[in-house]
Specification:
Shape of chain B: globular
Oligomer: heterodimer
Order of helices and strands of chain B: HHHHHHHEEEEEEEHEEHHHH
Radius of gyration of chain B: 21 Å
Structural class of chain B: alpha+beta
CATH superfamily of the largest domain in chain B: Butyryl-CoA Dehydrogenase, subunit A, domain 3
Shape of chain A: globular
Number of strands of chain A: 8
CATH topology of the largest domain in chain A: Butyryl-CoA Dehydrogenase, subunit A, domain 2
Number of domains of chain A: 3
Helix content of chain A: 40-55%
Strand content of chain B: 5-15%
Number of helices of chain A: 12
Number of domains of chain B: 3
Largest sheet of chain B: 7 strands, mixed
Number of strands of chain B: 9
Largest sheet of chain A: 4 strands, mixed
Strand content of chain A: 5-15%
Distance between the termini of chain A: 49 Å
CATH class of the largest domain in chain B: Mainly Alpha
Chain lengths: 422, 394
């Protein structure tokens, strides 16, 4: 851990070197079937849990192109690569914007899973327009006092802390008066309530902050500089989503040079409508010969396939270092797929689609999916916001004029700041 | 002007097709060479001049395409004077031609070439060499007056001169019937004709100048793709392969679907670029109209479709190159999706342009016309989706 292993070595030159280092470390430290807290601790302290983090902060200082090499060696040995430098968005953000003291205090507990984070961004009055948030943080000596409400917080009940964005200056335009904190949740001023969702589940929470306190030592970045920190954190969130959506852009093809075909890459959602796929369901309900049904199913199949191919093409483009608009369109495309899928299955079921529960489990599944489709078309940026992003960032169309851009936030027309959903 | 040798790289041929969607430097060089050629040779003024001319074919340009760029020989095997490239490379060229509505009979000749390469080389070698050298314009005559684009729509009768007309009969044949919607049928020196034998449907080579061939030009909506009706009255014909080789015929149809899809993807891509370009420069209400979400969202939705169309066409090309069983589903999928996308994008383009798109002087209508004809020729989106439904098990 004293040498800056590979940090300044050109990527090509150090691949084999890194491979050998990982293999040697695993040979010494990994027992097949192992795991558990002791292994986790050893892994984190070795730097191999987050190879691209700096050597002094639990990493190996490697170039990000070498992540793949590390992961391959772990997989080869039968150990799960931690890849915290991809998945640990809290530590990633703290490493990007934190002080040395903050890195010392927070990164290791996060890496070990002793601390867990949640995201306190959205509010009842700040959804698509996140910069319009109204939770206020007011300074009181070395601490800040926080009042307001956050919403759509997943994992809040399991988390120890949250990334909080709060307004600290009301007399400047909206983006310029925000500050970013690492807020401890285990305190009287924090009230977490699960939201009863239309799907029947409660993955999301609302978080009421009433004179909650956070030490100034838990502030990330400058006072009123929170928007910048937030952009970094959102970037790390997209990195996780990108990894979840398709793995590494430099994924190796299977041995023998075979190409991954897409036949088995069906969207899991469509294959699990009452345990049958569309084709089987159409046959079961006697509509396999119905021309409209055939068109609808072929069209849905097409939408799923082209989106999967877009994903493959995006990774191939990224592998060649070519810029590609493909990465930006997947979410919007998926929204159309899931809503179309619900429409197709509902048409297949016909009248029985009005049933629910144990009376008709297939209909119940379709009904649940019909609501779940809105997670794609609303969550993480609505389809309309996605279209703005595609229009502006990919196609280069001009932005809509913003009436609140240069106005002190205090004077801006605002949505209702709090609203209890639970 | 770059030559074949330059864009095919130092080995003299395109690198064998590698992993799906992995375009090589040779592919990019091919694309930029063809784009430069098309932009230089077929600017809009030239396209409009050819629209008004008795024929869109100018032999010197056609010969230059073959001699200097090797385009007609792109998918002709090397031993017959071609570059020995495959469907991926052809897709790139067709995409570029589609972007600029190039009115020369390239797609027609390419489809005929696909049919020829799938045939018996003892029969097709001479044709392939003539195509690669630019001496011959070729087309495929598939549909008839009822406008069907599969074996069921083929009624033109093939009768054996001397044999029994069975599957193994390779003697002289005579064709009688009427083919219609034949792309570039007036200009073609070589007609690849789908005809029905007692044993099934097959593809036959017919000399355009042979006795018994009479053609008439159809009045068409698409001003950059000409169609002809071709009467065959006991015309001498040579089967490209065993006359009732249904599998070869199906393979040809799938390859044709993907090739047409690639051309449409190019047209769609260019049409969207036109719309976006105009949305950035046209000012109303004191701002560029592209800043209005009503316009911006039309363009964003079109981008999703256009990129998806390109993926479908490329995937289809790669599936053919890899001789994958997926061809059966990808080919009708790509044709249907690229057809719908090009047409929808051409509509969006006219809508974004507003009044100016209603003028003959503006090119938006030329793309709309091309999108409409491309959608119906080689099988409508509906027919292809129905075929897809069958092929996924419905």
């Amino acid at each position: 851990m004293t040498a800056r292993a590979g940090a300044d070595v050109p990527v090509e030159a150090s691949v084999e070197q890194v491979r050998a280092q990982v293999a040697a470390w695993l040979a010494e430290n990994w027992q097949p079937g192992g795991g558990g807290p002791q292994w986790r601790e050893r892994l984190v302290d070795s730097g191999w849990a987050a190879p691209t983090w700096p050597v002094e902060w639990f990493g190996r200082g490697l170039h990000r192109d070498l992540r793949r090499v590390v992961a391959e060696e772990f997989t080869r040995a039968g150990a799960k690569p931690a890849a915290l430098d991809v998945t640990q968005l809290f530590a990633n953000t703290i490493l990007a914007h934190g002080t040395d003291e903050q890195k010392r205090s927070f990164v290791r507990p996060l890496a070990l899973g002793e601390q867990q984070g949640c995201l306190l961004y959205s509010e009842p009055g700040a959804g698509s327009d996140l910069a319009a948030l109204q939770t206020r943080a007011e300074r009181d000596g070395d601490t800040w006092v926080v009042n307001g409400q956050k919403v759509w917080t997943s994992g809040a009940r399991e988390a120890t802390h949250g990334f909080l964005v709060a307004r600290t200056d009301w007399d400047v335009p909206k983006h310029r008066g925000l500050t970013f904190f690492w807020l401890p949740l285990d305190q009287p001023g924090v009230d977490i309530r699960p939201i009863h969702q239309v799907t029947g589940g409660s993955e999301f929470n609302e978080v009421f902050l009433t004179d909650a306190v956070v030490a100034d030592s838990h502030r990330l970045g400058e006072v009123d500089g929170g928007w910048r920190v937030l952009q970094t954190a959102l970037g790390f969130e997209r990195l996780i989503m990108g990894a979840a959506a398709g793995g590494s852009s430099r994924q190796r093809r299977p041995a023998g040079g075979g190409e991954t075909t897409l036949a088995d890459r069906q969207s899991p959602w469509t294959r699990q409508i009452g345990g049958a796929d569309y084709v089987e369901l159409a046959k079961k309900v006697g509509k396999a010969d119905d021309p409209v049904t055939r068109q609808e199913i072929a069209r849905l199949y097409t939408l799923e396939k082209v989106n999967a191919w877009n994903g493959l093409r995006a990774r191939a483009d990224a592998g060649r270092g070519a810029s590609s608009p493909l990465a930006s369109i997947g979410k919007l495309a998926m929204s159309r797929i899931v809503h179309t899928g619900v429409s197709v299955t509902t048409n297949l079921l016909g009248t029985s689609s009005v049933l629910d529960g144990d009376t008709d489990p297939v209909a119940a599944e379709v009904n649940r999916s019909s609501f779940a489709a809105f997670v794609t078309s609303i969550g993480g940026g609505t389809d309309q916001i996605q279209r703005n992003i595609i229009g502006e960032r990919v196609l280069g169309l001009p932005r809509e004029p913003e009436v609140d851009k240069l106005v002190p936030f205090r004077e801006v027309r605002k949505a209702q700041a709090t609203r209890r959903f639970s | 002007m770059l030559t074949t040798g330059q864009y095919l790289g130092s080995t003299g041929r395109l690198e064998a097709t590698v992993g799906t969607f992995e375009f090589t430097d040779d592919h990019e060089a091919l694309r930029s060479t063809v784009r430069a050629f098309v932009e230089e040779t077929f600017p809009e003024a030239q396209v409009r001049r050819l629209m008004a001319a008795p024929s869109a074919l100018e032999r010197p340009v056609w010969e230059r395409m073959a001699r200097e760029l090797g385009l007609q020989g792109l998918v002709v095997p090397e031993e017959h004077g071609g570059a020995g490239a495959g469907p991926v490379e052809l897709a790139i060229v067709l995409e570029e031609f589609g972007r600029r509505l190039v009115p020369v009979p390239f797609l027609s000749t390419a489809l005929a070439t696909i049919a020829l390469t799938g045939g018996d080389r003892a029969v097709t070698a001479g044709y392939l060499e003539a195509v690669a050298e630019g001496r011959v314009v070729a087309t495929v005559a598939l549909a008839e007056d009822d406008g069907g684009w599969d074996a069921a729509g083929v009624h033109c009768a093939a009768v054996s001169d001397d044999g029994d007309g069975g599957a193994g009969d390779r003697g002289g044949w005579r064709l009688t019937g009427t083919k219609s919607f034949v792309p570039d049928g007036m200009d073609a020196d070589l007609l690849v004709v789908a005809a029905r034998t007692p044993a099934g449907v097959g593809l036959f080579a017919v000399d355009g100048a042979a006795d018994g061939v009479s053609r008439s030009e159809l009045e068409v909506f698409d001003l950059t793709r000409r169609l002809a009706r071709v009467r065959l009255d006991g015309v001498a014909a040579t089967p490209l392969s065993a006359p009732a080789d249904t599998a070869a015929f199906d393979r040809f149809l799938d390859a044709a679907r993907v090739a047409v899809a690639a051309e449409q993807a190019g047209g769609a891509d260019f049409t969207l670029a036109m719309a976006v370009g105009y949305a950035k420069e046209r000012v109303q209400f004191g701002r560029a109209i592209g800043s209005f979400q009503a316009i911006k969202h039309l363009c964003a939705d079109a981008l999703v479709d256009v990129e998806s169309a390109r993926s479908a066409a490329y995937y289809g090309a790669w599936a053919i190159a890899q001789d994958s069983p997926e061809v059966a589903t990808v080919a009708p999928l790509a044709k249907a999706f690229c057809s719908d996308t090009f047409f929808a994008t051409a509509q969006t383009n006219m809508q974004v342009h507003g009044g100016i798109s209603f003028t003959y002087e503006h090119p938006a209508h030329l793309y709309y016309r091309r999108a409409k004809s491309g959608a119906q020729l080689w099988g409508s989106p509906r027919a292809n989706r129905d075929l897809l439904a069958t092929r996924i098990g419905l």
